[in-house]
Design goal:
alpha/beta; 4-stranded antiparallel sheet; 39% helix; globular; lyase; pyridoxal phosphate binding; Glutamate decarboxylase
Amino acid sequence: MVVSVAATGAGTDAEPVTSTFFASRYVRDPLRRYRMPERSIPREAAYQIINDELMLDGNPRLNLASFVTTWMEPECDKLIMGSINKNYVDMDEYPVTTELQNRCVNMIAHLFNAPIKEDETAVGVGTVGSSEAIMLAGLAFKRKWQNKRKEQGKPYDKPNIVTGANVQVCWEKFARYFEVELKEVKLSEGYYVMDPVKAVDMVDENTICVAAILGSTLTGEFEDVKQLNDLLTEKNKETGWDVPIHVDAASGGFIAPFLYPELEWDFRLPLVKSINVSGHKYGLVYAGVGWVIWRSKKDLPEELIFHINYLGTDQPTFTLNFSKGSSQIIAQYYQLIRLGFQGYKNIMENCMENAAILREGIAATGRFDILSKDAGVPLVAFSLKDSSRFSVFDISENLRRFGWIVPAYTMPADAEHVAVLRVVIREDFSRTLLERLVGDVLKILRELDACATHAVRVATATAAGQSGDGGGVVARKSILEIEREVASRWRDAVSKKKTGPC
């Protein structure tokens, strides 16, 4: 408990400096929410006040909506805290941190099969997240297209970019902020990623690039970058255009190289000129770091790079942010050397194993259709087979009673009528938590069934009373009996699984 401390100002009638403390017995005057207080308060009181309010936030470990890492090893936590006061932009003062970023860029570039010669270094930069990375990649494409159009004496004021309607909102931000038309390939029921054929059909002479997603936010599915590359190559030959591909590998970039090494999606494909990836997703770093890698120096226009004389040294920079923390870059380097290729592979395999078990548990209820695929990002997206009595939004809301944050949403155009729940499997989502989640889903289904049944009985009784015929209620099969049977089958399936974190 924070001890109540009151101070008096000189020349006042014992006016307290502060009187807002931990526990209601000490509260006299509440802090004003939107104005800075006139006087200081003890550090213990400030800490306790804020800490108590933060208790009302959700538990990050139970936030199954987020792809963002919520757990790291204690040793990495120490490195983060030890460098939290370093401003990354001060490259001359923190040369080792700059070197660690360069190492990360090169490691990731090699992971993505960039065509780097022995005497070359990779072209890339660390960003605050994939949103900034996408902005930078998009700007590079726009500038290259504009320069070429100027050389040809053609208009360069109407650039566009082709994506699927399943893209993350950062692509919409890029298009709006930097005045680029966003041409979206609509989805259809049962096919929730960009169709390469339709995408290439939408390409025209003003298209600065086609953006493919390696790991859709909606279902975790990888788009077919290989087919897109082949189709676009043919169209470029026919038209004389040179439309390139950007791969948004925010979620899948740290999955595909370890689980699907034969899948061609990266710089092995000639038209792929840049790739972004989120270090704070399956790169296993806390929120605040992303990466963008270019195929070669010629794919990043030199005029976009600023050379700044800051604090006594020339600093080339291509970022939207200037000052930023060094901690996440250091944390990314820690994970890359700590885990190595095999360590990342083991973690991704465990995540996929847990996703498969969760998929079995959800399917075993008999109440849901599974929309996510076996291959892709480790997540499970599912919709209700029967939404006539309650919806996935009701399930999502009720899961919060147990601490779970599970998003419910509708698909983009033209599949808005499909509403789904999605559970993201991260490294810290253990088998025990998985079993608890399925158990809580079963409880909620049982409760919602009971509520719906009660509503039917009331409506039937009311209708019978109004008609005067004394109609009865149709008997229903026991929901509890069905759910016990489903739970038993699911536990049997779980007991057969031997791998994965526990």
